[in-house]
Design brief:
Elements lengths: L1 H13 L6 E2 L1 H5 L7 H21 L5 E7 L2 E3 L5 E3 L2 E11 L3 H67 L5 H35 L9 E2 L14 H11 L1 H21 L5 E11 L9 E8 L7 H68 L6 H32 L13
Parallel strand pairs: 1-6
Antiparallel strand pairs: 2-5, 3-4, 5-7, 7-8
Helix pairs in contact: 3-4, 4-5, 4-7, 4-9, 6-8, 7-8, 8-9
């Protein structure tokens, strides 16, 4: 009786009428939600944009107030105030590469962070799909395990009556009870998965505490999408992959930073306008002046060389990461294509045959049950559910593999008839 109540409570929880049915499209629409992964990528982009604004500010017009309070002793003896107040306006005219290269480096970093944000969105899309499919599979697994448990319980319950009249031995009764307890344990684990997969989906959607109850079966039309072969896709992936583009931008940014640091040895030319007032009158002092300031660095110690060495090391690090990534992408592309081929050819055909056989076996068991020849109808129904579960697993695994392939390609796969640049 307790098992019946547990099953009823689980069914009531899974089919609560208060919640709306969630579709896969609705779930994927939450990619733009302020999930922590997205906010981290957005904050990195904001930092890169702020660095770009800071680099651009090197060319800005500057206005500042200078002042000094002083006293001094002149030729006539005695101490006299020598206070100065100045308003200075200064505009850099030429810095011979300093600001230009700094801005170029900052622009490359912004491009890298924008691409990284796009990649985070692709990864979130895959994660939401995976969590959505996990819920559907957990529900199907629970339904099958619940059916198996019901069959095992009936067998054990009937065996107790047969044991009482001496039709079976105690070891046989214990075996049936052990089978029931094993299946019951598996069913309890399935029930827990029903709850835990929904929580993971809620977190992927960034709706913590708002667990979805009912999910609509998705229409996976993209599973039939034709694909180019490995040799055709490989150069496409190397060009379009977001992680490759991020590292390429970082390498370009390192080159620009090296050029900007080296430009520290170049001259600088600024225009300056000054308005001033002095407490001590002098013919050598101008109340209003304008001119050009020309600065030529003669010696800066080892600072420039040290900065260049640092940027070179950073560039080498990014270059090595890029080469390593390309090797990993080649492996990932091949394994993903092989997985898709296996799912489309072998796995899907095998699952379809299992469904065909289980449907036939179910009909046979139903006929035998009606003729009271056998009582294995419940087991056949559970086996049919397991076969359907396997078919859904293949469909969902194929959809995820295609989504990963699309993410590797920067969200845009080439048409089969050729790569469109």
């Amino acid at each position: 009786m307790r098992e019946v109540w547990v099953a009823l409570l689980a069914w009531a929880w899974m089919t609560a009428a208060s919640a709306e049915t969630l579709t896969l499209d609705e779930a994927l629409a939450t990619v733009a939600a302020p999930h922590p992964d997205r906010r981290i990528a957005e904050s990195d982009l904001a930092v890169a944009r702020a660095d770009r604004d800071q680099a651009a500010s090197l060319r800005d017009f500057r206005l500042y107030l200078e002042g000094s309070l002083a006293t001094g002793q002149g030729d006539t003896g005695g101490w006299r105030a020598n206070n100065i107040g100045r308003i200075v306006a200064r505009k850099p005219l030429f810095d011979f590469g300093r600001s230009g290269q700094a801005i170029a480096a900052a622009n490359q970093e912004v491009a890298a962070r924008q691409t990284a944000l796009f990649h985070v969105q692709s990864l979130r899309r895959i994660d939401i799909m995976a969590r959505y499919f996990d819920v559907l599979l957990a529900d199907m697994q629970y339904a099958a395990d619940n059916e198996f448990m019901a069959v095992a319980y009936v067998s054990w319950d009937n065996a107790q009556d047969r044991f009482k009249v001496g039709q079976i031995s105690q070891p046989e009764l214990l075996r049936l009870e052990g089978d029931y307890q094993t299946i019951r344990e598996r069913r309890e684990a399935s029930l827990q998965a029903v709850r835990s997969t929904r929580q993971r989906l809620a977190h992927a959607l960034y709706r913590p505490g708002n667990l979805p109850t009912e999910l609509a079966e998705p229409v996976l039309a993209g599973n039939a999408l034709p694909l180019e072969d490995y040799e055709t896709l490989l150069p496409w992936v190397m060009e379009k992959n977001p992680q490759v583009q991020v590292l390429q931008a970082q390498v370009a940014a390192a080159d620009a930073r090296i050029a900007a640091v080296r430009a520290e040895r170049n001259p600088m030319l600024d225009a300056e306008v000054v308005g001033a007032d002095y407490s001590r009158v002098s013919t050598t002092r101008d109340n209003i002046s304008a001119g050009l300031l020309f600065v030529i660095p003669l010696y800066q110690g080892g600072r420039v060389d040290a900065l260049v060495a640092r940027e070179r090391a950073q560039k080498e690090h990014s270059t090595a990461e890029l080469e390593k990534l390309k090797l990993e992408l080649a492996d990932s592309l091949l394994s993903t294509l092989q997985e898709i081929e296996w799912l489309r050819s072998s796995a899907r055909a095998s699952a379809d045959k299992q469904i065909e056989y289980r449907d036939w076996a179910l009909e046979r068991s139903r006929a035998e049950y009606e003729l009271e020849m056998k009582t294995n109808l419940g087991t056949s129904m559970a086996d049919t559910q397991v076969a359907a579960l396997r078919r859904k697993q293949v469909d969902y695994q194929l959809a995820l593999a295609l989504a990963r392939l699309e993410a590797l390609s920067g969200g845009n796969l080439p048409p089969v008839e050729g790569i469109a640049k």
